[in-house]
Every structure is written in C-alpha cells, then in structure tokens.
C-alpha cells in the first residue's frame, strides 16, 4: 500500500491543430486499451475531444469530474493527473500509493486510503497534497463521496459511523449503525446532492446532516436478509430516489428519501451478473456484466422492458448520471452509451480518432488510428483501410452490408448505399390445437409501493389471450381493497388500505379467463402499509409550579399511524411514548435544555424537531415596604450583607419594578422599619448585571413568613 504523499510534475503540453469545442452537456469516459479519456456530447453521443493519459494504458482508472477540475487516478500505480479541457492535455501529475479512492466535489478534492484509514486533501489543480493525511482509526473504510459543497463523507464500518469533512477538516463522527461492519456494510450515496447512507446489515437507509441522522427508512426483509456483500447501491442518484438491489435474488427497492415511500419490485434471479443499478426518470437500469447489456425496469409499466445492448460482451459496466443523462461505460471496450430521461439511447464510440486531441503531431497513436475509428478490442489493425467499416455509426446505424460505407481514405462524405427494407421476423405458425383452449398466461410479477396506511400494487397485464379480469391475492384481513376486480383493459393497479405497520405483506395477481381458467403471477417483495413518519410539528412547552421540570406537547406528523412512537431526548435522558406529550422532571432551574422530539414506526424514523428551553420564570415585581426613612435598599453581589460588595441601591421611599430571576437562602436580615426577619434573597437583573436584594423589601406573598415565594422559583 503506498503512502498518501505525492510529488508533482508537468506531464503534457502543447496544442493540437484542432481547437477543442467540448459540449457543455457531456461527460468524460475512460478507455484502458488506448490509455485515453474521451469527452462525449450528451445530446448526440459524438466524441468531441480526447486526452492521452500518459502511462495509464491497461490499468483500471478512476475519473472524477464533479469538482473544480477533471482528475484521473491510476488505481494500480497511484498516478494522478489533471485534464485540461481547454487544451485537451494532461497538465499536472502526482504520484501516490495504489488502491486509493479519488473523490471530488465543489472546489475540494480528496484521496482516501481505505486500508490505512486515512484521508488526504489535495489541490485539484496542481494535484499536490494539502496538509498532512488525516487518520480515521481502524480500517477498512467504505466508499466515500463528496457533496456539491465539497464536504467529504467517509463511512467507517468498523465503528458504525460516517465521518464528514466540511471544508476539508474532520468533523464529528455520526453514528449510523452497529460496530464491527465490513467495508461493504455502509454504502454512501449522494441523492440529489444530499448524503445518504445504506446500512446493508442493519437494513436501513438514512439521510445524513452535519449534526447527525435525519430521516431513516427500514428496508424490506428481502433486502435486509440478503447475503453479506450482495446488496448494491449507487454512489450517486440524480434525484431523491435511491435504488437498492439484492444481487442474488433480484429483489429491488426504490427508496424515496424525501417522502419515505418504498417501491418494491423483482427483477428475477437466474444466471445474470447484476451490477449496481441507476434510476433515471421512471426507469431503473441494471447492468448485466455477463453479456454487456442493461436490464430496464419501467416503474410506470411495472414490468421489465427491452434491454439495452451496450457492448454485447462480458465486462464490467459502470453507470453514472450527469446533467440528467445516464452514462454507461466499459473502459475495456470501444462502445459506451448515453441515455436520456425518456429512454432514448445514443452510442458513444470512444475509439474515434477523427476528433480534437491534445496529442502532439509526432506522438504515437493507438493501434488502428487511421483518422477514423479503431478496430474492435482484441483485433489487429488492418493493413489497409477497409472499404466498408464494421463499426456502427453514432446514431446506432447498423453494421454489416446495410451500413453506409466510407471512402477508403476517410475523406469526403460517405456514400449512401441503396437501402433495403429489413425483413420483418415472421411469427411462428401456431399448431392446430384441434379446439384446445388457448393457454392462460399469468400477469407480470407486481410491484408494491408503500404509503401512509396504504399499499399500491401495480402489474403488467397477461400477454397473449386477454383475460376477463384480475383479482388481488394476499390482502390482510379486514383491509379495504380498491377496486375489488380490475377489468381486462386496466388500469392495472390495486390499492389496499389496512394492515399493521409492524408487518410486511406480499401480494400476487390472479388473471381469470373464459371457461374458468386462471393464472397467478409471482408474489411481490414484502411491503409495509406505512412510511416513516415526518418530524413532529408545533412543539410547545410549559412549566410546572416552581419549575424543575418541562411539560412538552406536539402535533403528530400528517403521515403518522397508530404505531407511531415518539422519542424525546435531552434533559436527564431519553424517554419514548406513544402519546403526543411528555413530562421531564428532576431538572435544574435557570438552565437551558436542548430537546429533540422524533417520530418513528416500523418503517423507520422521521426527522426530529429541536427546541431550546430556558427553564426559568423571570418576574417583573415591585420593590415595596421601602419607607422614606433615609435608608436605601442595597443591591449586593452575593445574597449577604457580610460577603461580596454593593452593586448599587434603591433610594429610600422608591418602589421601582425590577426583573426577579429566582430566590436563594442567604444571611438573615431584619427590616429596619417593621422588624420583619427573613433569610430569603432575590436574584435580580440590575443594570445589565446580576445582583441580590433581601426579600424583606419585595412585594412577594411569603416574605413576612421568611419562606420562598411561589411567584419566583428557587435558584439551583
């Protein structure tokens, strides 16, 4: 493992003949075979610029483009370079250790050593270290993220915490799970720029704040009980929805981190090698590393739709969302794709060389660089330029005999060949069943979405023969189901109200056909009829007589249910109640208590409402019984005429109204006119300072008996 210490040198200079004009809506994609990074236009998929990455061929690399600069890290050698988009060159370079994480956001950039549990802030322009590495204790660390403000969020699974680094400085660790977790236990995600952590062992998803945990959502058992290390969560999400996938079972939950609603669906198990999912619009894209395709789940149709072919070859596909577009790249292959929110796919040919580049004129070009595209990975460059290239065009132009041909020298406009109408596939002839009833086929496996006191079930209709209708199975006893039956033409949705928040329910849909045949779908992922409650509202407080306690009341969140419980922290500890009130006792007067009230149910915990309570009861009271006898009433620094000093006095005969804070015992005094005796003193606010006056000259109800007054609390 290399150290987090770097040395910097200039590694590239000079300009290419073409002036780079990179699209504002675009992204950088790496290619390990050519040792390059290609910039592609997000609207067309065209490559509009390339940068040679010196010494980075055939190594896995990390590219960070969410901060002030575009940085590339060779994960094997630890070499870090900065891309200059204006010159299409790699301008700066520093050498660090291997196996590091590169993370950037805003104007901040970091290298994280997961094994040594260290964080090194770096200069995103010069690529050099800024300050000494910061130690987080025992590793390994989970995958870190940096939000748009540059705050780094580092999961420390061994401690069950996430450590923020605001402005590059270490903050207080936030407790998010149990101690002793592995590196994959805590997974960080930026959901619309907000830090979210998934505890794969605890089965929760929590929204983080600098001060601690906000909303926390409980994942269904199909996810939380998945084998260790098999739960996949993306490091960023374009919106509030974070997809969580159990790789082996194909069960998936979409967590809305704003509302707490969970949408549960099933992709199906089998021989797929699922990768980390990404959500964009109404679709969820799941890479299948076994064949280089994307599995597409449409939440509106509640069904799996036509897959997207990326490379068509075994390989690891990486997905990320940028500028509202989904980018999919396999750095070991020529082709990548970019998909917009409506599902339209543009292909990106990273090996295209007829594009601006910072490569010097005499610099060696990658194999097959003849001013057009390189040959496919694993093939040798041809001796002569082919008459009809086999590479598809940038707008998914088919290859083969129907592809438009280019001139052998790559110049001029390509000739458009005579287009032939593609032969449509014929439907296989159906055998004569001799009057046999048509096959009854089940509807698609439903998806279930949790709501406040409700579960909504959606499904894809039965293919082939149209049924007479659909019925829902699995509703809890006593639940209200709407509708009772779905007709053959939909809408293909049921709504179930009822059931216990503490339980999970699984549903199936049965299709009925003419002649009494039925076909039943698979069952949904178990789902709760509730969502995590929001924060309690309108927290108010009052004091019992004499203080030393706080009576809290609040309003339940709008989405609270009968199982919602409230936790009050602060005061002398923590208490939990099902009521919307709590009483805190045994407190000290004249102190400020920071209290929080949080709501939770079986679906998770909502945000908390904080309130600062000053446990004091100051009173405006007159000085009284102050005879005009030439003797003023003294204001002392202590409740005594024998200790402390005199702050001031109230002139004889004067009866001003003063602010009285509390009462204490002090030296006994005697009223110089009436002969009353008392050792009670009143703490008052006097000219911006705190002073004491004997209660003998105060209009409280108990001073003549020498006891404390119920009007003014005792000092603690």
TrEMBL record:
One of its GO terms (molecular function) is hydrolase activity, acting on glycosyl bonds. The keyword Protein transport does not apply. The keyword Hydrolase applies. Residues 376-388 have a biased composition (Low complexity). Residues 440-518, 533-606 form the Fibronectin type-III domain. Keywords: Carbohydrate metabolism, Glycosidase, Hydrolase, Polysaccharide degradation. One of its GO terms (biological process) is polysaccharide catabolic process. Pfam families: fn3. Residues 348-487 are annotated as: Disordered. Residues 360-375, 404-440 have a biased composition (Basic and acidic residues). This is Fibronectin type-III domain-containing protein. It comes from Streptomyces reniochalinae.
